[in-house]
Amino acid sequence: MGKFVKYILLLLGIALLTFTGCARYTDIRPTSFKLESVSLCGLRSADLEVSVGVNNPAGRLYFSDINAEVVQSGKVIGRLTLAPFMLMPKSDTVYRLQGKAELTNELSVMQALSYVRRPELLREAKLNMTARVKLKSGVSKKLTYNDVPVEKLLKLLEQ
After folding, report:
1. How many of the other CB atoms lie within 10 Å of CB of 43?
2. Cβ neighbours for 110, distance < 8 A, ≥ 6 positions apart
3. Looking at the chain, which runs of residues are DSSP E strands?
4. 59 DSSP 8-state letter
5. By the 8 A CB rule, do 87 and 28 touch?
6. Where along the chain do its domains lie?
7. Contact 86, 79 (CB under 8 A)
8. Exposure string for 88-115, b = 16+ CB within 10 A, e = fewer
9. Confidence tier at 10 by pLDDT (50, 70, 90)
10. What is the second-level CATH architecture of the domain 29-158?
11. Is pLDDT larger for residue 139 or for residue 3?
12. What confidence tens digit (pLDDT) does each residue in 44-60 have?
């Protein structure tokens, strides 16, 4: 009976440590965002470099397969792909991320220019995002966020 109780207590202790360790991952917060450079690749795509500040009180995270689609009025008007990157553990660091943005055939170049002149037109758009996140231990999970309002993200960037 004593071994059984010790075994249960050990499992509870491991579960408690696991859950408190995972709780720190929910505390990861972006601290800054800056578009560093844009290099046009024809009329429909561009290579991007952005600086993103991240406060990471948790462990090391490796992000890969990062993709997003911009949807407006039910049509995908653009796609964004970011290169893989790693968040360093217990840090408040600025990361320079490389990516590629493309316009789909649903959006003409002239319409895209109207978004540049009047970015408030994008406030009605939504983002569908996916990314694969891998922990240092090797455990990975695919994250998916659908119908995220662009307006919500723009407010985060204004802070």
Report:
1. 10
2. none
3. 29-40, 45-56, 61-72, 75-82, 85-87, 91-103, 126-135, 140-149
4. -
5. yes
6. 29-158
7. no
8. eeeeeeeeebebebebeeebeeeeeeeb
9. very low
10. Sandwich (2.60)
11. 139
12. 888 988 888 888 888 88
